[in-house]
Design goal:
Elements lengths: L29 H5 L9 E5 L2 E5 L6 E4 L10 E2 L2 H10 L19 H12 L3 E5 L6 H11 L8 E5 L5 H12 E2 L3 E2 L2 H8 L5 E5 L5 H10 L4 E6 L12 E5 L5 H12 L5 H14 L3 H27 L18 H6 L5 H5 L2 H6 L3 H12 L10 H6 L6 H7 L3 E4 L2 E4 L3 H7 L6 H16 L6 H6 L1 H11 L13 H15 L3 H18 L2 H17 L3 H17 L3 H18 L54 H6 L7 H25 L141 E3 L5 E3 L22
Parallel strand pairs: 1-8, 5-10, 5-11, 6-9, 9-10
Antiparallel strand pairs: 1-2, 2-3, 4-7, 12-13, 14-15
Length: 840
């Protein structure tokens, strides 16, 4: 039937006999093969603790603080019908094909009743027995007897490759209806304390302190735990009852063998079974496999005799017909009994008599470390449409055993098959499985829960392929990296986070071997997000910083944004301000710094005075003596955002302008013996011959001294705020207050103001101090004591002849040019009256 056209109506007739309207012709199929619409990325949002996690398989998962409106409420417990459905899903599927009747549990009634009594009292029990002793079958019977003991019923869990934390979350989701919700540790413990159930836990792999942690977190639960003797025992102070499960007695072992064969044993077969009993210590699994050997022998004998008696084209008796004891000795010798060695390791002999699909399934299981693929995957893996029936063959022979909701090779079968050559091509089988699972896990119709059910098989394929990973060719992709990249988001969305972490670590290792930088960045990003969800901030920061470095190297802008956001969340949780520096010079999103904060290098100092024999200026900036975390994180000028760089540049320019104005008055020579300082801009108090009776020549605008320096600069403002000569005989210092200098002279000339803004000199209390500093040995605002400037020591700055002083001409823009060579015989600055020669 055409899957597109409707069934019986495909010829143009509806059910009522009327003709259906003419269908529109479909477009040709040829373009569809080359123009497929790309599948949308499957993103899933889930709540973990107080985070909202968006699983993004393309650029990496995004994590943020969960908004209040999206926080889930307190989860409700499942109903009895929902618990029954969950229990059904926890059991392995029934293998298809010819199913043999289920064997009864023999000689276990006493242990069964004891376990039920202990559980009814609320006691936890640990059932210890070797592999193949029938622990799983006994647990199934006890679980059926305890359905009505606890308010939350019976919960089945598997401890195979599971930690105590994994089991707590499995128990939580089995009892509570909380889809896409993974509570944090505190909330999880609060909810599990309210669970009252009988927990049947098979194949546990831990004990001691980890088991005590599991029991303490569930005080209202009674555990029935099954373990092998190799698993660590519970701690001495734990209230766990120990029940040991051994092998069967000889009568029980023979009965299991007869039920497996389906007939009564002959005398020779009974003796053979007795020898097998002493060799196998009465383990039921060994007699199930021995029964399969005898059943295959009967099939071979019946098939040979049927061909000889009825011919090839005649009807032969059914394969499962009862054994005919009337066969003569020659026919019995044609198919002899297996030897004791073959019975002790029956897997190779059993596999040799199975179908080709069953043998191919065993090879895949060996390549996957004992994991048998689900029966739905066998047709695609094996290449046979009826390969799903192979699982029934393997289960009937005792070569596989149930583990949780799936099947694994039975105890000892893996080693026996590897010795028989089934493990010679492990890498090829793992590669085929990896390619199939990559396609299947990435299909839009496959839910994350189904991928999590096959987690062990996928992880086994990764473990087998990672050591042999090599860089792919041009245009090719690494199968190992592709499988990890496809399976990891599904594990995260399915809340199987232990498998998520294993897939990420295997993928990161494979990406390094394959030399794929972009994939390395993805896996490290996901590991950082996982660590953040689990509260490990140090590991999260390390993984995210590694991912950011790789993504910036690969120019992955979208991935870089996701990594920066996650790293900012880590910084917010840890209380540390991170300096996120982009190698491309871009401003970091969501990075906020204090605009008014001082730059890491300090505020630049004004320009120092011009040194002798030097025509260049040096910008001296004050470096912070004690680096702060902010300086460390931002790494100097590279840590600035663009807006901070603009603000810092404006500050430098403003400081330079102000320093220029201050420097004009800071570099004058204050030597009292200098004749050029005898006449100041302010009138003196001495008696003179002029008609103003002040003895001072009135300064005329535009006059110049012999040295060529202008002396017509404006005076300091008087009390009325105007410039010029004051009528008040009391000399002032420019602020309207009486000057401390009785001679009326100033220690230095006023700095030349700009044309737009008049500048006043601050009051001075020391007549020998020049500039805004209190240090008489320094000039200008710098703190360097070696700066050259005016000094009161007459030995360091001898009087300079004004006839040899360099002449400078000050321009309106504040720039200075030297018109005469500088006298280098003195360490002091050249003296001049009026404006300084060191003008910017």
């Amino acid at each position: 039937m055409d899957p597109i056209d409707r069934g019986p109506e495909e010829y143009g007739h509806d059910g009522d006999g009327t003709a259906s309207p003419q269908r529109q012709p479909r477009e040709p199929l040829t373009p569809d093969f080359g123009q497929h619409t790309p599948a949308l990325a499957r993103t899933v949002q889930l709540v973990t603790g107080d985070f909202l996690l968006t699983v993004n398989p393309v650029d990496g998962s995004e994590i943020e603080a969960c908004p209040p409106g999206q926080r889930p409420g307190r989860p409700a417990k499942r109903s009895a019908a929902d618990r029954a459905e969950t229990d059904r899903a926890a059991k392995p599927p029934v293998p298809p094909g010819l199913n043999r009747p289920e064997l009864p549990l023999l000689e276990r009634q006493e242990e069964r009743e004891r376990l039920v009594r202990l559980l009814a009292r609320g006691r936890s029990v640990r059932l210890t027995g070797p592999s193949g002793s029938g622990r799983t079958s006994l647990l199934d019977l006890v679980a059926e007897d305890c359905l009505d003991l606890a308010p939350d019923g019976v919960i089945r869990l598997t401890g195979f490759h599971r930690t105590a934390t994994d089991l707590l979350y499995d128990l939580f989701h089995a009892v509570y209806d909380a889809p896409l919700h993974r509570p944090d540790r505190e909330e999880l413990l609060a909810l599990t304390r309210e669970i009252g159930a009988v927990v049947v836990l098979d194949d546990i792999e831990f004990g001691a302190a980890a088991l005590d942690e599991l029991l303490d977190a569930t005080p209202e639960c009674a555990f029935l735990i099954a373990a092998t003797p190799e698993v660590p025992a519970p701690s001495a102070d734990s209230a766990i009852e120990e029940v040991f499960l051994g092998g069967l007695g000889r009568p029980g072992a023979v009965e299991v063998l007869e039920r497996a064969v389906g007939r009564v044993l002959t005398e020779e077969e009974a003796n053979w079974a007795g020898d097998l009993y002493f060799e196998s210590e009465g383990l039921p699994l060994r007699f199930v496999q021995a029964g399969a050997l005898l059943r295959q022998r009967d099939e071979l004998r019946v098939g040979t005799s049927a061909v000889e008696e009825f011919g090839v084209f005649q009807d032969a008796p059914p394969v499962d017909a009862p054994f005919d004891a009337s066969l003569d000795a020659d026919e019995e010798d044609a198919v002899p009994l297996p030897s004791l060695g073959e019975a002790a390791a029956p897997a190779p002999l059993l596999a040799s008599r199975l179908s080709a699909s069953a043998r191919a399934t065993l090879r895949f299981a060996v390549a996957l470390g004992g994991e048998v693929p689900h029966q739905a995957h066998l047709p695609a893996l094996v290449g046979d449409t009826h390969a799903d029936a192979a699982l029934g063959e393997l289960a009937g022979c005792g070569l596989v055993s149930p583990v949780g909701s799936r099947y694994r090779l039975a105890a000892g079968v893996q080693t026996q098959l590897e010795a028989a050559g089934y493990g010679d091509d492990v890498e090829s089988g793992a590669l085929i499985a990896a390619l199939h699972y990559s396609w299947w896990a990435g299909h839009p119709s496959v839910t994350p829960e189904r991928v999590c059910a096959e987690a062990d098989a996928l992880l086994a394929a990764l473990s087998a392929l990672v050591p042999a990973t090599t860089p792919p060719g041009e245009g090719e992709e690494s199968a190992t990296v592709e499988l990890a990249r496809t399976a990891a988001p599904a594990f995260a969305a399915g809340l199987h986070w232990s498998a998520w972490e294993q897939a990420l670590r295997s993928g990161a290792e494979a990406a390094v071997l394959a030399e794929v930088v972009g994939e390395q960045a993805y896996f490290h990003h996901e590991l950082g997000v996982l660590a953040l969800c689990e509260g490990d901030l140090d590991r999260a920061r390390a993984e995210l910083e590694t991912s950011l470095g790789l993504r910036e190297a690969a120019a992955d802008k979208r991935g870089t944004v996701a990594g920066r956001r996650a790293l900012a969340l880590v910084a917010d949780r840890s209380g540390i301000t991170l300096g996120l520096v982009s190698t491309s010079g871009e401003e970091v999103p969501d990075a906020r710094y204090e605009e008014s904060a001082s730059p890491p290098g300090g505020i630049p100092a004004p320009f120092p005075p011009l040194q002798p024999a030097s025509e260049t200026y040096t910008l001296v900036s004050h470096q912070a003596s004690t680096p702060t975390p902010h300086n460390k994180a931002r790494g100097g000028l590279r840590g600035y955002a663009r807006r901070n760089l603009v603000a810092a540049g404006a500050g430098v320019l403003l400081a330079a302008v102000l320093g220029t104005v201050v420097t004009l008055g800071a570099t004058s020579n204050n030597n009292a013996d200098n004749p050029s300082d005898k006449v100041g801009v302010n009138p003196s108090a001495s008696q003179g011959t002029d008609d103003d009776s002040l003895g001072a020549d009135p300064a005329k605008k535009g006059d110049k001294t012999d040295t060529g320096t202008a002396t017509s600069s404006p005076t300091d403002p008087g009390p009325d705020g105007t410039y010029g000569t004051s009528d008040d005989p009391t000399p002032t210092d420019g602020t309207g207050q009486p000057s401390d200098n009785p001679s009326g002279t100033r220690g230095g000339t006023s700095p030349t103001p700009s044309r737009s803004t008049p500048t006043t000199k601050p009051p001075s209390t020391n007549p020998t101090t020049t500039g805004p500093t209190d240090d008489p040995t320094t000039t200008g605002p710098t703190d360097d004591p070696t700066t050259t400037g005016p000094t009161d020591d007459p030995t360091t700055a001898p009087p300079t002849d004004t006839s040899t002083a360099p002449s400078t001409q000050t321009s309106a823009s504040g720039e200075a040019s030297s018109s005469a060579p500088v006298d280098t015989t003195s360490s002091a600055a050249p003296a001049s009256s009026g404006a300084s020669g060191a003008v910017i």
